[in-house]
Amino acid sequence: MSAAQFAIDATGLRKRFGNTVAVDSVDLAVDHGTVYGFLGPNGAGKTTTMRMLTTLTRPSAGEARIVGAPVTDRDAVRDSIGYLPEDPPVFDELTGREQLTYFARLRDIPTPEADRRIDAWLERFDLAGDAGKRIEEYSKGMRQKIGLVQALLHEPDVCFLDEPTSGLDPRAARTVMNAIAEMADEGRTIFLSTHILSVVEELADAVGVLADGRIVTEGAPETLTRQVESDSDPTLEDVFLAVTTDHGAAVQWR
Ligand SMILES: Nc1ncnc2c1ncn2[C@@H]1O[C@H](COP(=O)(O)OP(=O)(O)OP(=O)(O)O)[C@@H](O)[C@H]1O
């Protein structure tokens, strides 16, 4: 593990598309070996932030580092990160196994080790029997599983996961959640963006809520829920509603 203080750190991160400020000024300091839940309404700027942190979009201003390496230096960051985007990049004409083998080559994983990891993941995700089918024949959930495996195959220090349980049946979603918890136990860092708050409630050590391109609240889930007034036991949903709307909310921020 690197000597960098944080797995992810960002200062004043900003992205403008023409007249649209997608990400305004985001500061982050995510500890090694933790799960960071990244929440926010549709259009808040979560994907754009993740694309900047994974070197896919260049920031308009500000800085970010992954395990100490600047995100503007793709070669320095590449091996440390894995990214599951909302629509995983897969080739319809390849089989599931071919897709993963192709990705393993791109990541320079030696073949025997790649085969071992691919077999283990396919087994874990109940995909072993379909590994020889072309991806065009896969269901949404099967594609999602392939996308997730290819994000994790090189065992990166920092994983960015956009809706990792989207489209998955409850058993597969549970497998993914267990895998995320295991990765954090191994010292990896997971930056988890999802609208499924129960997933964040279960897994996240810290939560940041983005609205209009800015982090409007951040902290441990139990710290955030303590700050919200609700008739029943406050949840992250109450926190989300309180900090992302200033009118009509059933809950109030203390
Ligand atoms: N390539 C682009 N060109 C122009 N505007 C963009 C581009 N990408 C994103 N935006 C805009 O930036 C803002 C933030 O979008 P982004 O996709 O980051 O939000 P999000 O929080 O991931 O939303 P969702 O939860 O719906 O996935 C939106 O207003 C969006 O229209």
UniProtKB/TrEMBL annotation:
Keyword line: ATP-binding, Nucleotide-binding, Transport
Superkingdom field: Archaea
Residue ranges of domain ABC transporter in the record: 8-237
Single GO MF descriptor: ATP binding
Alphabetical list of Gene3D superfamilies matching this protein: P-loop containing nucleotide triphosphate hydrolases
SUPFAM superfamilies in the record: P-loop containing nucleoside triphosphate hydrolases (SSF52540)
Record bears the keyword ATP-binding: yes
UniProt-listed PANTHER family: ABC TRANSPORTER ATP-BINDING PROTEIN ALBC-RELATED (PTHR42939)
Name of protein: ABC transporter ATP-binding protein
